[in-house]
Description:
Blueprint: E1 3-5, E2 14-17, E3 26-29, E4 41-42, E5 51-55, H1 57-67, E6 71-75, E7 78-81, E8 87-89, E9 94-98, E10 104-108, E11 115-117, E12 126-133, E13 135-139, H2 142-147, E14 153-155, E15 163-170
Parallel strand pairs: 4-6, 5-7, 6-9, 7-10, 8-11, 9-12, 10-13, 11-14, 12-15
Antiparallel strand pairs: 1-2, 2-3
Amino acid sequence: LNQLCHKAGTPDTLYACIKSGGCASSVALAGNWTFQSPAPLNALNYGIDNTGITDSAAAINSMISTYGTGNEIVFPCGTYLINSGTIYVQASNVKLRATAPGCAIFTYHTLAYGMLILPPGSPGGTISNITVDGLVFDSDAASLLADAGRGTLYVCGNGAGYFCTNIHINNVTI
């Protein structure tokens, strides 16, 4: 089961689709159905380390790019070491949050952005409906970042030809 959908001409019938990308192979579901948001995805179930020992940048980026669109990714309390690069959010409809405000700390010691919310590719790209809630970005390279024109959390840059709408940054500590 890859998705739930309605077929053209049958707005009152819900279909369970067997294959992603449409309802070519589907089965009608009987009964009264309501759509619910998918359950939040726990980052620790996807190989992401919150002990501050193992660099989590690649694992977090992989999770966001693979599962982020349309999902909420929850980061349990702990320290997430981000030393091998920036965390990228480059898709729409992504929600990232800590289990409690201020308890999931993204720490890094490199001259990079902590998190970059930016459409992929050349200027002209668009992303929307991004939420970052309760995360902490902590860097001992903060003064170097500022000198290099970088920041801990970079959001879009509409003036640079990128277009971002409905970006929500809540309870974030920098």
